[in-house]
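Practice set, problem 2.
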Amino acid sequence: MSNSELIVLAVLAVGVGVLVFLQIRAARPVRDPRSDELQQGLVDLMQAQHSLVGKVEAIGQQQVTTSKALTDTMSASQQKLSLELHERLKTVEAAMTKNLAASSKDTAESLAGLQERLKTIDKAQDNIKALSEQVVSLQHVLDDNPARGAFGEVQLADIVESMLPSFAYEMQASLSNGKQVDCLVMLPDPPGPISVDAKFPLKAYQEMLAAPNQDGRDKAARQLTVDTKNHIRAIADKYVGQAIDEHRTTAENALMFIPSEAVYGELHAHHPTVIAESHKLKVYLVSPTTLMATLTTVRAILRDVEMRKQASVIQSEVGVLLKDIGRLGDRVVSLDRHFGQASRDIEEIKTSTRKIVSRGDKIENLDLGEGDTPVAVTEGNAPAIGQPEDTE
């Protein structure tokens, strides 16, 4: 409660006491023996109220003093808080300025990197556009028969070179009939060198795919069958069983390389007469994948042939080695015989040496006086001095 409120309460209390006193006097005109006591109590009460008013005033003064001290303390705290807040704001401002500068730098670098990436993307788009134009031009190139043939020959050469050693094939090999086969795989007899010729019946296949209706597709499919059979017959006539030189001929079968898995799959899936014709004429169709599998088998055959050749060489060398070992055994036997004879000669030499030493000892032990006649001294089975020794 505030000071003014306390003072008002004290005044009200005094007023209430006075009113009570007056009412008691008015109500009792006749003197009561207890009135003096009551009056004295009222006087005491009024004195207590006056004392209470003094205390209330002291408390109010103390509250004023406390409020002033508290106000001064709060003012000092507010000033200190303001200074600290100002310092912190300065620190935060400096940090934000530094961070904004770093962020601006990073943003500038990121934008520069983004610009470089955009340039790279633009360059890649230009390359893709140029590549698309090249693909379109390649499609037009494959519309031409000689161009398709060259494309198939290049793909055939790449596959063969990657699968076989250089001595196992010959590209653009010439035959005695004046024809030139795309590739001649040098297999041993049998079956002999196998001819591989690249053919690309693409035009009829593309027309079949682009046909707007079933009749157009059927017509293009029939044309694909006719074209492929013509290629098979041409390969059979030119490259099957033909002479390469005076000593070699091509095998009785050949391979027709189709440089498109799609065309190869179409022929095997929907053109059984083409497959039957190829088996009949022994001209087998191969795609890039099946050609690689076939050449893997050819490589295994060539490895086996080379191993057989090396085995024969090893066998021949082992035969020569066995002959050398036989001669070495004879010489060891002869050397052993010579060693035996030498051993016997050494034993005889040792025996003669022992006998000579024994005779020398006997001569050394002989006692001869002057004028005495030599006396033969025998020792065991040894002969007397002057007598001949038996020989062994």
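Problem 2, part (b): a different protein.
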Amino acid sequence: MLKRMAKAGAAALACALVFALSGCASQEEYTPELGEPQLSPPVIGEADTLRVGVNTEKSPLAGRGSEKIIGIDVDIAAALADELGLKVKIEDVGTDADKALEEGTVDIVMGQETVDEEAGIWHSEEYLPTGVVLFAKEGSNAAVPTGAVTPKIAAQISSKSAWAVTNAFGEDALSSTNDLATAFSDLSKGNVDYVASDAVIGMYAANLQDVPVEIICLMDTASGYCVGAKSDATELQQAIQQALESIINNGTVGVIEDKWLGGSINMEGLQKVEAKAPAADSNAPEGEEGSADDAGADGEADASSSSSAATTASSSSSRSSSSSN
């Protein structure tokens, strides 16, 4: 009985969070109640507003859809701003996050990778784990491949994932595809045993294709995405870290993951598949799939395709705005 009550309570909380993030289905837009601002200038650059930099070439973290900047990072930024009693303004800073922070055009930047520590940028704890992983069909009971039998693994051509497959299992294991849509379609049809991909991009691509998947093992060093701020902005750092912990612990980030990825990513305890042999004479490509632009069959799978059923937190709130540089 207690278990049923606990599950019912959790479901109610999840529904409330989805409602808060997505807005209701009626013509009235959901507007979160604005709390007392916890930060003000000079800690932030604009009164009552958290200015957030994203890279719109890095979907599903951020992209353009319906003439707005949308994506996982936009939703999380909006949740952070709400937690701090602030409005949110989204800026497209591209790959120049450090420059945007230094010039003061934004207060924080999203989508910073934990494995890419830059001098002058403070990094929060991660809000989304990632890394090159192997996906299998959900419920298939697929085991971690050992190499005793050559597995059939689909991966996007010329990607870091493809390199990881050949490095661990040899070229015969690799089934190259032009995009992840084809890779997950092949997995769904049973043409391949696994798909190798960046965890976040792969989850997004599988969700777009409506292919239920599960992560089997890690193919590379695990990393994650975090919030960045200027290294000397200690008061802002503390506030952001506390707000981030709050929206992770209360389930808001989990709801955002479910919206964009079809579920939460859990990389804890994953077995790592080691390379078959040292690759001193072989260099992995610098980029993974890069973004989810190739996730759809038409190559246009920016974040807009999964936002039709649920508007992002920032765009559903009359307190939010976005602009591009």
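Answer key, part (b): Residues 58 and 290 are 7 Å apart (CA to CA). Confidence is low (pLDDT under 50) at residues 1-30, 278-282, 296-325.
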